[in-house]
Amino acid sequence: MIKIGVVDTTFARVDMARYAIEVIKEHMPNAVILRYTVPGIKDIPVAARNLIIEEGCSGVITLGWVGAKTVDKYSYLAMSIGLIMLQITTGKHIIDVTVHEDEADDPKKLVEIAIDRARKHALNLVNILKYGREALTRYAGKGLRQGVPSPGPIIP
Amino acid sequence: MIKIGVVDTTFARVDMARYAIEVIKEHMPNAVILRYTVPGIKDIPVAARNLIIEEGCSGVITLGWVGAKTVDKYSYLAMSIGLIMLQITTGKHIIDVTVHEDEADDPKKLVEIAIDRARKHALNLVNILKYGREALTRYAGKGLRQGVPSPGPIIP
Amino acid sequence: MIKIGVVDTTFARVDMARYAIEVIKEHMPNAVILRYTVPGIKDIPVAARNLIIEEGCSGVITLGWVGAKTVDKYSYLAMSIGLIMLQITTGKHIIDVTVHEDEADDPKKLVEIAIDRARKHALNLVNILKYGREALTRYAGKGLRQGVPSPGPIIP
Amino acid sequence: MIKIGVVDTTFARVDMARYAIEVIKEHMPNAVILRYTVPGIKDIPVAARNLIIEEGCSGVITLGWVGAKTVDKYSYLAMSIGLIMLQITTGKHIIDVTVHEDEADDPKKLVEIAIDRARKHALNLVNILKYGREALTRYAGKGLRQGVPSPGPIIP
Amino acid sequence: MIKIGVVDTTFARVDMARYAIEVIKEHMPNAVILRYTVPGIKDIPVAARNLIIEEGCSGVITLGWVGAKTVDKYSYLAMSIGLIMLQITTGKHIIDVTVHEDEADDPKKLVEIAIDRARKHALNLVNILKYGREALTRYAGKGLRQGVPSPGPIIP
Question: Under CATH, which architecture does the B3-139 domain have?
Fold first, then answer.
């Protein structure tokens, strides 16, 4: 029985977990999904840690929302370092979905970014968990993006 | 018997611990609250560490105050990295309340931010400790803030 | 039997791994090359970790692509810290090839940078793995670059 | 027998250790003071580590001096992260006194800052070592500063 | 038999190791010097690690060269964090000589900086290794610099 963790925050302005969970359920119907909600992005690493270490999750998707100020970006940096340290300690993938408040002026646009990014990265996690290190190799260097249009590969 | 740690500083200009402790006592009257006061934010991680490792606290709330200069923000970043590393080492939540001196020009406004943020994050900590990883899930993606007005979720 | 890891991303806009693998195969025809593709640069450290710890790779080359925004640079910083921590934990070289979207306005130029950098750093990795700590000493202080023209040593 | 470490640098332009040691001797006449001098701030963490791990110091005060350039501030950040990681590994307080070259234009003012900061933080360290986690609690939220005037608490 | 490590890069535009080695040989004629050359500054920490852990070096001097761009400075920050973490793990001094491409417009000036800095820090390392934690104490607070003129102590 495979367990997959989903970490989200009350700070976020879109319920991204809903979309991530939909994708995971569709592609891994037998997986057990464990959700963990924390206040903000700096609380995400400990939640991911507990899902992996205490609950035995094989992989985690985290859904963060970052404010527009410089200190918010520093919080993002601290979270990113923490999640990377946790991954190299445990060997488990933690796919980090982050939406930045300043990615778009229009809130409706932010929703689109958030949903698309959550869906596509949930699929990335599923594929890595199901098919391993070469699951995404056919897309290597293809210039894929999540939440925004993919520029695609540069054709020399 | 559950122990909860409260870390604060002499640098801060508001006694935030008082408000955090009020909330914890109200919602967890049987909890033992251990307070640890340090000079400034860079001293907070070792205090949180000692409360968790030496004193057996199940969770910690830290109450930091950050100056307006670039180096103050770097100190904030270092503290944040330290608290995250400590959390992923111990598995214990350390809810980090931070007030930035440049969040408001009016000192009275800073007091309001500090008190509200301390109270709301104390409640966040209480809820996670009492009800676990889904305690806050009903608020996931709801755009909650502490100390400033909550923008709420984006309605697509 | 020596194993060499190659980590790349779907975010990158050039299939740099192809060029790195060509070079490795040419200079170490008996090496087993293990490829690991992840979504973006923040996923690179765990892939490198798994190639070293789980698969027994003696060295890894990582092929990252970094956006032009400030937060992309913070992601680059987090990845770099992670790769360095992993290297000082394992003692294995992880040669980090990174192309920054803002290194050139012309996409064709970016392709040239990417290919040259991947090739030259693949050769660096090969030489360190084959000949050890003094393999590159004859080039020490020679002002070598990858992907851009080498300024060469300063002649006093 | 309690041992206290004092780390300073040849980069600093004021012999801050002299003032820190005066304060420690005055308040803890039986303490053994071990001094460790290094070139610059990036060498401070290993000195603090050796004083704690090899020499058995119960606490350390570090006296750093930081240049005005951006890279100097990055060195400050790296040092701060290192000292915090060391503290959460050992549980020992390392009170970090830092003077920034750009805190004042007048060198005489820098001397005043350095001496006052070294003295006051030496006293902070003494109090924490002698009286524990609540030694400073009576000053919590009081807006205390070292080297510059204390703004004091905000009176709502 | 004492072993001393010297790490340098092919990226650097001056053969700083030559000058560092000269100084070490002059002051510690019986020391065994182990050299390790890597492509760039982000590869320095693993080389220093291998010299300490695998080869048994008692101390290391690293000779880095940093580009002028913001991302180069982030690489510098990542390297600095790595070297500090390695030092607090091993207890061995790693004296970090860094020349920044933007320290001078005139390449001849950069050579002067590089040579002087390498020499003076090699001597710092030698003195710490030979005479221990108080070797440099007579210069504490003396405002010493390497590669640029020393401002000296501030005379109050």
Answer: 3-Layer(aba) Sandwich (3.40)
